[in-house]
Amino acid sequence: MAVNRCMCTGTTFAQVKRCAEETGASYEQVLEMTRCGEGCGLCLPYIKLVLLSGLVDLPVLTPEVYKRLIAQYTQSPTAQPPRQCCESREEHAPGMAAKAISG
After folding, report:
1. Which of the residues 45, 48, 82, 89 has the least number of beta carbons within 10 Å of its own beta carbon?
2. Blockwise average pLDDT, block size 10, the chain, 103 residues
3. HSE (CB half, 13 Å, CA atoms) of 2?
4. How far does CA 34 lie from the centroid of its chain?
């Protein structure tokens, strides 16, 4: 089973990748533009991998798989998952990020 989108916003990882490629945005800027990571935060490590690898269909990540993939794409044996979103942020309506990217 592949993971290919932020479940809170409905933004696909293909849209995330395209956003970064077309704008040259950093990880933090992509999060701001797409609003990914502002709901549950579970997409954050996936988005980091999308931006590093260019892959848009990723396996379900365990901490071990995440560390292995990050090391593979960054050559960093001590890679740690990105920050987690705080629980107090409000959830966003599906499709909101797609409008932000296209509009």
Report:
1. 89
2. 93 96 94 94 94 93 88 66 39 36 41
3. 10
4. 9
